[in-house]
Backbone:
């Protein structure tokens, strides 16, 4: 191994009394990359972050920064800094003192501190606000100040603990793009934890999907979406129609199954799936082709005709719930190309998708 | 505001107005008028500042006041130094039941009257008391030791009496400090001292100021503790006021002393706020 990673976690385990919060997790974050840990609340992602920052000691395993173990290093000496969930800007100081706090700890000359603080504010696009109070800033500005306060110390790794959680939707969308460009500008390794998949998918080079203390899959955002390795990932990343069913026949990796609701589906097996086994099948609403009549969708391994049970209008993310022959409803994304604008309850639609779009996982 | 609103406002405000005027403003005006009466003969008075002049011309009064003020400041500082770690432990380190129990333990002594609490200290500190007996029993000293009736005993009593009034505001302000602030303080490279100095103390400042004002005023106006634990050697200004009213029947001078205590202690509090760069608005706001 020639290139040394900025962060390596090796067999990291944390046990709180009886509960195993983090269960034997290993991962490496290469220099300058944006790494996210995505998982539902309580999955252990915050525990990992607090162990990296040094606020918790792992039960076993090792944390290495630039190839050196930091387990014996106290939090205030570790070359990592953290952007807290609620940012934890110090309200008793003005912005410049907030950003200069860490520099003062290093005993730098006052002039140098002032210059570095001004430079940091410049880089996050907020020049000249050093004299303001924390409460005078907007949510997005606070966010950038919190990042500047860490980045001014030039950490090897910047940890971000769901920092966008408190922002409203529009600002969150904006900050996603901005965080990514800040990361590129500072060229620092970011480790980001979130329960919001869109944050993780948009910003990250690598995403680890975490559940119940373990990493389910560590991959690029595109692979998590297109090629989930486990049923949890298939269900958690993006939306899916999810069916439990029994396998009728297997040929190669093609599986024919009948769902509990009585729909017959052809899908692709993930892992080994045997005839007669119970499986879970996932089909994304947006992977389904939809037309007014059967002629409009062409040849597909799975095709159904059904009646609209409900139209869930949500702008670009509009869906219909389609009740198909043989029972059961299917969640289908509506293309916003104009042809489905007047869709009413009870209208007939034809849908279809290829075998590769329905992934089947052997149920445990 | 309609007629109903007005009536409601009058009804709501009247207890406060009555309480303020009948129990505080009117007696004070009366005392103030009294303090301006100079006795020139039997039942003959004239209005003058002579009573106030007496305070400044008689060294005993002035020195007693200065001593009282100084001792009260010392008591306030010591109370703060003792109460701060206790409050920090209760607010930030103790969790759940332990937190409530510790807080209750600070509170419980105040369910007993101050008189009884002071007697408790006398039982511990007197010549035939528990400390003295223990020292004799363990062979450290050969004869009985008197711990009472000196400044140290009085200081112990004052601090004990004031502790709760410092702990409560400190616990309240420290509890409102987000743990992540402290963590951020460490995360950005600070050590325990930096975090205390730059984050915890500035955050706790309103609690420190209000606690200190209350403790200072309580100590300055305390009568029981200096009398019982300090004895004759520890003259307290409140004892002067008491003796003017009760022993010497010189209500005029007593009233003047009362107003001097009010004015001078307010001056000290104002000066301390100015020195520490705090304002009353920030503390109370």
Residues:
């Amino acid at each position: 191994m020639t290139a040394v990673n900025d962060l390596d976690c090796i067999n990291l385990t944390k046990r709180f009394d009886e509960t195993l919060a983090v269960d034997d997790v290993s991962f490496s974050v290469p220099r300058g990359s944006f790494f996210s840990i995505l998982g539902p609340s309580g999955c252990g992602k915050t525990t990992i972050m607090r162990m990296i920052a040094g606020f918790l000691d792992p039960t076993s395993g090792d944390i290495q920064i630039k190839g050196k173990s930091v387990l014996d290093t106290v939090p205030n000496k570790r070359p990592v800094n953290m952007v807290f969930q609620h940012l934890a800007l110090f309200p008793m100081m003005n912005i410049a003192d907030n950003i200069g706090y860490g520099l003062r700890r290093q005993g730098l000359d006052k002039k140098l501190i002032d210059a570095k603080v001004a430079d940091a504010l410049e880089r996050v696009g907020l020049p000249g606000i050093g004299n303001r109070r924390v409460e005078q800033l907007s949510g997005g500005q606070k966010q950038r100040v919190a990042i500047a306060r860490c980045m001014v110390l030039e950490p090897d790794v910047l940890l971000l603990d769901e920092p966008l959680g408190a922002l409203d939707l529009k600002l969150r969308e904006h900050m996603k793009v901005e965080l990514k460009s800040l990361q590129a500008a500072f060229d620092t390794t970011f480790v980001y934890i979130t329960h919001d998949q869109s944050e993780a998918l948009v910003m990250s080079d690598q995403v680890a999907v975490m559940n119940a203390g373990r990493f389910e899959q560590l991959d690029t955002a595109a692979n998590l979406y297109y090629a989930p390795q486990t049923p949890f990932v298939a269900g958690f990343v993006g939306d899916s129609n999810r069916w439990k069913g029994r396998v009728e026949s297997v040929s190669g990796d093609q599986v024919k199954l009948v769902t509990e609701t009585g729909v017959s589906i052809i899908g692709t097996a993930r892992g080994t799936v045997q005839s007669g086994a119970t499986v879970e099948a996932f089909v994304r609403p947006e992977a389904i082709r939809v037309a007014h009549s059967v002629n409009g969708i062409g040849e597909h391994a799975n095709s159904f005709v059904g009646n609209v049970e409900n139209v869930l209008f949500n702008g670009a993310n509009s869906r219909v719930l389609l009740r198909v022959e043989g029972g059961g409803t299917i969640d289908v994304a509506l293309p916003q190309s104009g042809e489905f604008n007047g869709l009413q309850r009870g209208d007939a639609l034809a849908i279809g998708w290829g075998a590769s779009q329905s992934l089947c996982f052997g149920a445990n | 505001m309609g007629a109903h609103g007005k009536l409601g406002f009058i009804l709501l405000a009247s207890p406060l107005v009555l309480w303020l005027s009948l129990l505080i403003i009117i007696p004070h005006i009366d005392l103030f008028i009294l303090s301006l009466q100079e006795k020139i003969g039997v039942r003959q008075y004239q209005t003058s500042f002579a009573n106030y002049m007496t305070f400044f011309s008689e060294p005993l009064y002035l020195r007693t006041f200065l001593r009282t003020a100084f001792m009260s400041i010392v008591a306030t500082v010591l109370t703060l130094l003792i109460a701060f770690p206790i409050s920090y432990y209760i607010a930030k380190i103790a969790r759940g039941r332990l937190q409530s129990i510790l807080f209750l333990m600070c509170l419980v002594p105040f369910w007993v009257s101050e008189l009884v609490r002071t007697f408790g200290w006398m039982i511990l500190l007197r010549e035939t008391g528990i400390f003295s007996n223990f020292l004799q029993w363990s062979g450290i000293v050969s004869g009985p030791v008197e711990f009472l009736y000196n400044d140290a005993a009085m200081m112990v009593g004052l601090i004990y009496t004031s502790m709760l009034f410092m702990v409560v505001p400190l616990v309240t302000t420290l509890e409102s400090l987000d743990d992540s602030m402290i963590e951020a303080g460490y995360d950005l490279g600070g050590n325990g001292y930096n975090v205390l100095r730059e984050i915890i103390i500035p955050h706790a400042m309103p609690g420190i100021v209000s606690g200190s004002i209350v403790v200072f005023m309580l100590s300055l106006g305390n009568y029981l503790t200096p009398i019982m634990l300090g004895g004759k050697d520890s003259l307290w200004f409140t004892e002067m006021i008491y003796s003017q009213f009760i022993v010497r029947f010189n209500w005029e001078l007593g009233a003047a002393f009362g107003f001097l205590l009010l004015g001078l202690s307010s001056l000290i509090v104002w000066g301390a706020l100015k020195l520490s760069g705090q304002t009353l608005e920030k503390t109370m706001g």
In short: Chain A has a mean pLDDT of 87. The interface with chain B takes residues 53-55, 74-77, 80-82, 84-86, 88, 90-93, 101-102, 105-106, 149-150, 153 of chain A (CB under 8 Å).
